[in-house]
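INTERNAL AUDIT FORM
Audit reference: QA-55
Scope: verify that the stored structure record matches its stored sequence.
Auditor: D.O.
Record contents follow.
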Amino acid sequence: MGNSLFANCCRHVTDLIFQTRSGNSPDERSPLLPKPPTSCTACPEVPEAAQSVGLYPDIIPSEAVAGSLQKCTEYIQDLPKARDEGGAVAPGARPAGRGHGKGRATLGLDTTFLGPDGVLKCGGAAPSALPASTGSTPLAQRTVVLPVPLSEVSPGAWGTSAGSIVTDSACPGGSSGCDPDSRAQALASKQQQQKKKKKKKKLTLLEHPPGVALMNGSGPHESLKGEKDARQNGHEEADPGEDGNDQEVIVIQDTGFTVKICAPGIEPFSLQVSPQEMVQEIHQVLMDREDTCHRTCFSLQLDGNVLDNFAELKTIEGLQEGSLLKVVEEPYTVREARIHVRHIRDLLKSLDPSDAFNGVDCNSLSFLSVFTEGDLGDSGKRKKKGTEMEQIDCTPPEHILPGSKERPLCALQPQNRDWKPLQCLKVLTMSGWNPPPGNRKMHGDLMYLYVITVEDRHVSITASTRGFYLNQSTAYNFNPKPANPSFLSHSLVELLNQISPTFKKNFSALQKKRVQRHPFERIATPFQVYSWTAPQAEHAMDCVRAEDAYTSRLGYEEHIPGQTRDWNEELQTTRELPRKNLPERLLRERAIFKVHSDFTAAATRGAMAVIDGNVMAINPSEETKMQMFIWNNIFFSLGFDVRDHYKDFGGDVAAYVAPTNDLNGVRTYNAVDVEGLYTLGTVVVDYRGYRVTAQSIIPGILEREQEQSVIYGSIDFGKTVVSHPKYLELLEKTSRPLKIQKHKVLNDKNEEVELCSSVECKGIIGNDGRHYILDLLRTFPPDLNFLPVEGEEMPEECKKMGFPKQHRHKLCCLRQELVDAFVEHRYLLFMKLAALQLMQQKANKQESSGALENGASPDNGTADSEKSESEDGKIDDNVTGLDQVKELAETIASDDGTVDPKSREVIRNACKAVGSISDTSFDIRFNPDIFSPGVRFPESSKEEVQDQKQLLKDAAAFLLSCQIPGLVKDCLDHTVLPMDGATLAEAMHQRGINMRYLGKVINFITKTPGRAQLDHIFKIGISELITRSAKHIFKTYLQGVELSGLSAAISHFLNCFLSSFPNPIAHLPADELVSKKKNKKRKNRNLGNADNTAWASMTPQELWKNICSEAKNYFDFSLECENADQAAEVYNLQKITLLREISLKTGVQILLKEYNFDSRHKPTFTEEDILNIFPVVKHVNPKASDAFHFFQSGQAKVQQGFLKEGCELINEALNLFNNVYGAMHVEICACLRLLARLNYIMGDYSEALSNQQKAVLMSERVLGIEHPNTIQEYMHLALYCFANSQLSTALNLLYRARYLMLLVFGEDHPEMALLDNNIGLVLHGVMEYDLSLRFLENALAISSKYHGSKSLKVALSHHLVARVYESKAEFRSALQHEKEGYTIYKNQLGEHHEKTKESSEYLKYLTQQAVALQRTMNEIYKNGSNANIMPLKFTAPSMASVLEQLNIINGILFIPLSQKDLENLKAEVQRRQQLQESIRSGDQLESEDKAVEEKKAEPSMPSAEIPLTQSSA
């Protein structure tokens, strides 16, 4: 994360440099120039002034760098020579992609190596856990160029330091950085990397984004001096010095250096550091290193002077290469002693997954290492290569085989061997004798600990200022005197090592294991991920956890001096940070992201505390539903209709949806990001059936009445309305991106008031003088399909589908995605209309152009007619009508004087036709107050209101007539492949379809021709419909349950929902626990209003009846089932899938064991099976905008076939993402996946493996271990493993993916065909023919079902099956399948297509083989045992051929190129780049110009596109 943005952009100085035009707008993309320009201007992909790219205070614009930069480029050009002399490419080097590289060996930057000492060395995006640093460029970002033969590279030379630096600017509240614990892990990767001798000094060159000249010499410059001035590459070099004065060139003057660290009790060791690091970070590294991890309270001294923790290394006098830093133990304070004990506890628990199962501290699960048996890639526990075929056991577990009906649950979370942690201590806890009495305080006692060792020795330990020693106290006698011997040690670990041999042995083994794990397995995720299953856990004693539970640990106060955090201040200050250039924006986005994730965590904890009854209300005398709470500077309110606020909108139901609508509003205003307009931090938490809204508090709002403070908007839904000029000005800036129309409404005195938002949106100026807006629940226009209004006629399309329909509440809004899609749709319409009219005019004009000349209007006649003449000229120049309209529209918008009236008329007509609010340009906006009950509009705007009503009806019709059919069509084409409810919801939302349309979507599917090909979508839709309806019922059901009956109530509900047992009986909590007296008093405390045991009387029949009526009322869909068994049968659903869906939606966690759903003799669940109930949290996800732009332009480049450029842009995006989000984020995951795919295509298999491994780990950690995205990551990783000849690992991964897919959906899914083809091919490769056939034939069946029996996918499937039959020498079956394939190819592609020819060749070959076999058999029959038998050729497939087939089915195709081809290609690319400007319409390059192209096996895919499966970004 500290890896600055400069890092991975692998564009060398010699490569092409972007040049921007004068405009700084991010939209103006410019071509890649064939000759580098004289000045290095910023890359166009970066919005605005990103020229000053450094993140660092010490970056100096300078002209002096020209010379050294030149040396640098010369050095690069020398490389091919160096390589020839050395004869070997650096290990891991990438073959030069797309002809740019010319044999330049560069070390892949994002590799993660495990050095010999088991310490992680990371290059590139250091997978560190820190909030990305704000102050350094450690060596991690430098490409290492090694002109050295392989044999000479020592393993130690790999580790370039990956130190990340943390300063506090990202932690508004903190004095010591954000989270020391996670920070420590990150810095681990720096340790022990300097085992290399000085003579192995490497030359490092800082990678840089296009066009920013960087120089970072490593050590003395001698290494550069002797290089010849070789320009043999023929590139003319750009010399940044020529133009230096007007161009910032960024220089980082300093280089990394090595210091020696001398710590007590171990040999001194070297540590690579960077001058921008702070001393603090060396501390963190030492606290994470295996041999110094037990020290926390020490200072670093140089020549006897203590170094200041927060000083940067370069400010310290006398610190240089080779300096000796001494680790000096410091006296403890109570705070230091606590930190020490906490740190030791964390080390003891470092492999224990219980925090992940319990969903605390942003821990989450990952199981990849179970299937890869340790780390993948170059290092790891084993180095099996493909040669060891015999050892591979390929048999999959029974339940994975095609056709298997059992779906075990236990396999979801396999037991990891490392989890049975080595027990070091039985108990480590605070002693009951704390705190020390006064007289002992004066002896230096800080606190007392109580320990039971594994050998069962009970000891009391004193933590004193000098360290830890044994005292003579027992559990019942206090005797603080030191025991004899007292073993005084500065660290608790050293003390325990002396008194317990087992501790000594196990603790060191544990630390060895800890440092071997992939950092991505232990870094905290930005938001908590909860697991819906967990194994039975032993509950162990844990002093730190116990202490945390009792001291009200509001928000980690131990790291923040003083008081709790002022969330509002933090959230708003981060928004105010400057954002003029890239470094400022990165810093700002990182701060915003960090504060948001902290706020979300705190709000979630608070909301749970509120519902569990642990927070005192601020209005305790009111009834429970109306109570409000403040905790940790966050305001909490419950989702009930308090004071009949929502009476006209649907009461409690409206009050329940309002918070999510409000959150969507906050999300959108935050995304528009207008300076000076502030929103509240908002988190919506659903927990135990209640909805809690958590908001940051506007300063001063609690002191005054709401009526006084609202200066904009209305607090009574439009009766009294006020406005304010400043708010209008601020909101006006948001109105265009949000498509909101400025409009007037009448208040109670019939005065007109102007607004630029809905009336409910309130503006309040806080005591801090900031302009806040809140209550954004009607940011988007109402959805008329669910809002019947008397006297309003809906369009035909809506009526046909039974709309408008009465909904439960009147707050239904259209989604932002729909509004955008609708406007885009209208824009195309506008262009077409205008173009048509212009064409007609042109025809008319040509007849009368002479007449026009004479009759030109007097005022600006000549100008007009000249203009129109020249425009006619343009039209003739075959510029399409559309382009001309664009031109015309822009001219009209900018300056009204120069356009002739006829053209203006054209635009006016088109505007009117599409409902634009302006006559001169296309501009569609919605008035969110239309159809709001209680809002009145003045007479003057009557016509405008009429137009707005029409627009809303059109939008409602657009959703039904375009978006839903569009979604279903995408599902038919398999461009959208949902696998579970969440991915289906995501696909609907991306097209702007709300979930309340789910019933309509399913109905539409049933009526679609080719319905069988939508089977999977239908199934997902139905299970989503059932589980959502069940969730609605579960919510009200839970509100009537008190805490003591929670597990009984949940298990009873699940039994009614899923079990075949006809009459489950609920177990009420035992009577003696519920005393009668108490209940009377506590009646009013309970949030539910009914009797607390009403839930126990629910029956399965009743629940399913409710589910069906809920489905009918809410989704307008009629379910045909009366119980779970019928549902499973009629709709072919799996009960385990329904269990997963309902658990994820409600936050229930169940015990990991095998459940028998079908027993009619006993219920499926008991109350022991319900382990926990978690909150379901909705929050804002701040985005990394610059990184996202890079990512998108990288994707675009890749899809045009420019792989190398694409790769560089995506590497750059990865860096920026790391900078903003830290190491873990779903967008980083998408980035890594694409990067891995590009590495793979460009032939760098090991790099692909390394990146994909990170992508899998991250997907497991951030999205969940069985999320559909994770399943796909597993499949990609298996392919790269196979390419790296790790066959057994590849199989394990594929089996895992298949198991997960069976659990999440079942067998009958189009993705399953791809998965089974993969498995079948790998098994074919290891000669397991019978198994292979089972999978391939299953894939064939599924493909035929979902793609139609005539599709090319099916032809390919037939071919794969034929190959296996050939290997088994069953030629008749092989022929049969190949013939099927041949027929499809012939019909689809024609006789002369290469595929058809290939197939026909293969048929001939098979026929020959079959004939030969028959001859041999006849010979045997005729001559008996002494027959003369010809040897037959039975071929085991080669790995290369299997890999080739794997690439084809996964949509990857390589085209081999010779050197000459590359030269031609390069010339061609340059020619194209000049042309590109003129064809900006984005035509894709023809495929033969592509070094590499991507093809799906069906024609519907554009040839060069890389299918980013469900790209989450």
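Auditor finding: record pair retrieved intact. Residues 816-854 form the longest helix (39 residues).
Action required: none
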